[in-house]
Amino acid sequence: MKKDFTPEDELLFLALGGSGEIGMNVNLYGCQGRWMMVDLGMTFSGNEYPGVDLVFADLTFIEERTDQLDGIVLTHAHEDHIGAVPYFAQDLGVPLYATPFTADLVRRKLEEAGLVDEVELNIIEGTDSFAVGPFDVSYIPLAHSIAEGNGLLIDTPYGRVFHTGDWKLDEEPIIGEPTTEEELCELGDEGILALVCDSTNVFNPNESGSEGAVYTALHDEVAKWGGRRVVVTTFASNVARLHTLGEVAKATGRQLCVAGRSLDRIIEVAQDNGYLEDLPPLVDFDTAMGLPRGEIMVLATGGQGEPRAALARIADDNHPIELTRGDVVLFSSRQIPGNEIAIGRIQNQFAARGIVMVTDRQSDIHVSGHPGRPELEALYAWLRPQVLVPVHGEMRHMAEQARLGDARGIPSTVLQKNGDVVRLAPGKPGKLAEVGNGRLVLDGDIIVPADGEAITMRRRLARDGIVVVVLDGQGGVQVEGIGLPLDEDYPEFVAEAKADVLDAIGRLRGPARRNREDVREAARLATRRAATRWCGKRPQVRVMLPEE
After folding, report:
1. Going by C-beta distance under 8 Å and a sequence separation of 6 or more, which residues neighbour residue 392?
2. Hey, which residues does 43 pair with through a beta bridge?
3. What is the C-alpha separation between 233 and 329, in angstroms, rounded?
4. How far does Cα 286 stand from its chain's mean position?
5. Residue 545 needs a FRET pair 20 to 30 A away by CA distance; which of 66, 355, 458, 503 works?
6. pLDDT at position 1, please?
7. Rounded to 5°, angle at Cα 145 from 142 and 151
């Protein structure tokens, strides 16, 4: 019998995504028979899922309990926190809650999916609490690399939870006014049961740095390259960085051009919500290319090596923005783990063309949006939680934060992963059970399991290739190999594979010779053995046998 897992007189926490990985954040809080979801994110695919762009958390657990789900609260507008909304919110059938900037981006996603009238989207302004079932929730403004980054203060019958979302400490954040040390200390004085905390940058021994300090480094770097065309790539969602770059352009006498649809969208949404009002007027590509080289600065998407983004096309000399030897590309962003090869490919293209590149390793032109160890320690001291639950990180990040919390005197730490049901109260905090969890992928227009037959077969095809064998029923055999490393040996392989298939079929005796499946299997095994002899591969083999 399947265990019910309806929350009883207790406070539960369950991550379905974002714990044990960076990205795809989906968290659930349970209390008195009800659940509340915090964030509904996605991540981008890598080589492990050929032909797939988007990856989602498997929501089966809560999809089977939608009658117990009261709402989805979104902390901020990064894709790893809101990207799955247009794919799942309608089926979950509960209201969304978000601050204005986040809500605007979510609304546009719902419009694109034709769901804007199907999903209730509530805009929360200010820090007043709102009820989601048995939970009273307040947004707590925190600095991050996007407008309106927020933590959540969640009041429950068993104590308060501070859910940080993504955050950092920043005395000069440029955009927004984060909650102050004094205000966070007051929350600590009132009592915090549990701190559910971002672990991404725990191995950084230093503070992440102020967004305001980036202005000086970017200004000096752009000013140094007078007479050169300058392209700057950064995260499109970093509204504060866009403001900084606009100020740098004005201060260095350069006009501003934007290359990339995601930048266009973020700028539009930001200005609709009262941000980037001082951004200088933008010029189009033709105007930009007609200006003296030292009088233009281009903001481009694609700093993570995305093949279809503006920066990749500029590197490939396949974009209206043209660079020549001596021009400059500034990478005002960090290298997300897993993107090193894609970023390196673009940087190598620029290097081959004599284009100068500057990254955050050569100049302080980027700061992280996540807390280093000093910031984590400060938050612990201000909030003084009874329980620490690390989230938003690979296991090594979360384990390190658990050790840091122990060392700084937090009474209890709970190291969990996706699928772990954790009881925060009453009693000793800890893991109760495990529930099913996993990954889904958007394959074309269909959402399928990441470990399903289609994706598994695609990996095998990418690794070993395929051989198609056609039996005509009259003793004739055709063999077609795809993706085999044979080149000039291919004709000889085909001839030998045909002979092997005929020999294998000829050795069948009695009923097996008339059994279609036996014939197919004999042909399949003979073909695979031939391929292994010739190239060391074990390709997929498909045998076609016409109906009699």
Report:
1. 18, 19, 22, 25, 166, 197, 198, 199, 200
2. 55
3. 8
4. 34
5. 458
6. 39
7. 25
Beta-carbon contacts of residue 213 (< 8 Å; ≥ 6 apart): 172, 364, 367
Q: What are the two backbone dihedrals, phi and then psi, of residue 422, each rounded to the nearest 5 degrees?
A: -110, 130
**Residue 434: beta bridge partners?**
420
Q: Angle of helix 211-224 relative to helix 239-251, nearest 10 degrees?
A: 40
Stated as kind and residue range, the H or E segment containing 105 is helix 100-112
* Alpha carbon distance 24, 55 (integer Å): 8
- Looking at the DSSP bridge assignments, the partners of residue 358 are 330
pLDDT at 183: 97
Q: Which pTM was predicted? A: 0.90
DSSP letters for 138-166 = EEEE-B-SSTT-EEEEEEETTEEEEE--S
Contact, 175 vs 99, CB < 8 A? no
Beta-sheet strands, E only, within 342-454: 356-358, 387-391, 412-413, 420-425, 430-434, 439-443, 446-449
- What is the number of other CB atoms lying within 10 angstroms of the CB of residue 432? 13
Distance CA 91, CA 68 (A): 14
Q: Is 464 left (phi over 0), alpha (psi -120 to 50) or beta?
A: alpha
| Token reading at 280 | 């200088």
pLDDT tens profile 260-316 = 999 999 999 999 999 999 999 999 999 999 999 999 999 999 999 988 899 999 999
Length of the chain: 548
* Cα separation, 14 vs 525, whole angstroms: 47
Q: Is the preceding omega at residue 337 within 30 degrees of 0, hence cis?
A: no
The one-character DSSP state at 294 is G
